[in-house]
Amino acid sequence: MNRWPYCTTAWRKLRSAKLDQQPMCVICERRGKTVLANTVDHIKPISQGGKPFPPLEELQSLCASCHSEKTHMHDKTRGNALGRRFKGCDETGQPIDPSDGWWR
Are 66 and 55 in contact (CB under 8 A)? Predict the structure, then answer.
């Protein structure tokens, strides 16, 4: 995480603000688990045109496992055929990922 923008004071402040606002992993919560977030993720990756320092609503708090899942399934591959960033469904059978075409 030594690359720009993550090595800047501005990112550290933004990251801290997001984790204060949303301390739990949003994906784990959708899966019915309570897991403390330790990573702040750009919903739209910088490599895909996302803003380096976006407003808080364009960021999400994730645990390391969910962040790794999103990075490998979506960010590095520039998306996937289904448009999913996360696997799985919630207790009602709805996909975990709100960008999924089947979501609500």
Answer: no
Cis peptide leading into 5, omega within 30 of 0? yes
φ, ψ dihedrals at 51, nearest 5°: -75, 140
Domain residue ranges of the chain, discontinuous segments joined by +: 1-104
The predicted pLDDT at position 78 comes to 63
- The CA distance from 95 to 104, in Å, is 8
**Residue 59 DSSP label:** E
- Are 82 and 100 spatial neighbours (Cβ–Cβ below 8 Å)? yes
Q: Per the structure block, which two tokens stand in for 32?
A: 């019915």
Residue 55 to residue 66: CA distance in whole angstroms: 21
Token pair in block for residue 3: 């690359």
* pLDDT at residue number 88: 80
pLDDT tens, 37-85?
Answer: 999 999 998 988 999 999 999 999 999 999 998 888 777 666 555 556 7
